[in-house]
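Entry 14. Structure prediction run on the chain below.
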Amino acid sequence: MKRNLCGLTVLFCGLGLAAAGCVAEPVEDTGVAQSEITYGELDGDDHPGVVLLIADVGGGPAWRCSATLLSPTVVLTAGHCTEGASGGRIYFESDVQNGDNNYPFAGNNSVEAVSMNLYPEYLNLPWFMADVGVVILEEPGVDWLDPGDYGVLPELNQFDVLKTKRGKQVTDFTAVGYGLQMINPVFMEAVKVRMRSNPSLIQINGGLVGDFSLLLTNNASTGGTCFGDSGGPNFYGDSMVVAGVTSFGMNGNCAGTGGVFRMDRAGPLAWVSSFLNE
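Output returned:
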């Protein structure tokens, strides 16, 4: 699932909150999970509206991503998480690894999707310019969330005012997801536990990201995203405003930087809002 962006090898992302983004993670994890968490923190009950998404192909589980409940039945994720999926299911425990859910199949603490939707422009533009998807659930995923626990869409062009100052990393975000916590050529930590980190803005409106993405840090100081965090939210500061969804990374070790598809652009914002208005 590698793609090329401006001549650079780019991997689809998923969050590990250890290093920076990559791809939707296959359901079959490899490696041995250990207790140490790298470059991120356990989220616990801080963001109960962030969920784990399993995409199905041909009736069987194929890959996993992260996602955000915008309402009881509308779930925001990345386009590459819904592309080619014939179905899906969300899991909403903070610790899916050790929870009561029959992962990756139907079970307690999970809800089936009735549709896996791909932003129409995804098929017309380079994928990284249209990387947003929406999952509709057959019934409310959770009935115990407070209104403030749901993700909130930004205002139109809200983040155009953000800047980096003389190369200094400014403006913190809160990235949340269920992806890998550690990866290198011989070891992978892949427990399915909701985590968070606080990456900072590196680039906006120009260069590699154009006006459709944000480039955020991914290092030991700020944390970042990795395989399995794809589609997860990058909240603006400590708010529940979803600045964008985790989209891509620059290398297979989830290190350096992470790409976030912006949700404050007119087309994606209107398309996602249409599901909330139905």
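The radius of gyration is 16 Å.
Filed with the rest of this week's runs.
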